[in-house]
Amino acid sequence: MATTVPSKKKKMAIPAAADIADDAPVLPVDLVYDILLRVPAKPLCRFRAVCPSWRSLLCDPTFIATHAARHPSLLIAVAMENTDTDVQILDMSGNVVRRLKSGQQCLTDDMWTHHGLVFLKGKDGRHHVLDPATGDTSVLPDRPSQAYMYTVGWAAAAGEYKVLIIRDMDLHEEVCMVLSLGDKNHGWRERGSPPAWVGRRGEVAVVRGIAYFLVSGIKCGWDDWIVAFDLELEAWRPASIRGPMEEQDNPIYQSCVNLAEVHGHLVASVHKRSSDICVVELWFLTDPHEPLWSKRYNITLLPTTRDVFESFGMPLQVLKDGRILVWIWKHYHKYRGVPRVYDPETETFTEGAASAGRRAVAGVYTGSLLRTVSALP
């Protein structure tokens, strides 16, 4: 009796564009455009290889701008220490959507994301700029000696990035110096001393063209005074800003203040830690001229035990529903960073994936990964 051997299924071959008959049905261009607008950026980058017409469409600046408006990106740039892949771009859940190499192992304590670019300090001591969309990198000019504070901001009126450093001239004088990114002729410009001693504390945030620095040491009994530098005018604002710390907070907890830019606002995160618990208050500066602060979030981290310790990294972004994306350091058997979404209504977290490296530092990346033209000057 004859036996029948089942034949193996053949994989369906995808015809090349040249193999498609002239009378084969083709989707209208407008329909293809509308469909692709609904697709997230990560697969769209791969779709450029489908055919020349798709590549032309997906590289078109008008399409990229329309897609960015429909899919406002909320991505996190994470610097991985002592790895060949220096920077990873994560989504809100902690999944990697892009990996970048800067050519240098990076120091994770020295990293910023600003206006669609990533700035970090390599172990060669020089500062590098990465464009996550195109993968392009550049190296900033060497800093003057005795420069220890460093930040980058976007000056909208001038249409350029400006690098700002604080230089310690001697024990009694600090000087601010500014460099326009891409300006190879004029170099560093001296722009006067801050109205109060900034020192090496390292707390700085840039919001709408203004760089805010925490003052070093205690002024009038409090450790949250802030001085401001206008990147457009390249000048210090004369008046210091009083931070949000309150008198009754100080005796109960060991308190400290950090600065961050969140959704176009300066945010002071006041960390209040006792022996077994950490509470973080997030204060938003609503009026820098008065100044007026508004406490919008009160976040309690997990209790500290012998094997478990958590600390607050930084606020990242306020979501449309009022929840907030934050970065948390997890100290278990290893030191990891993890994104979490905090819901102030339920006072609960939704946790993302922990970073794979020994240490990571995060900042928000708001650019479009579809962009094909480098933003580097």
From TrEMBL:
Pfam families: F-box, FBA_3
Sequence intervals crossing the membrane: none
Location of the F-box domain: 27-67
Signal peptide, first to last residue: none
Protein name as catalogued: F-box domain-containing protein
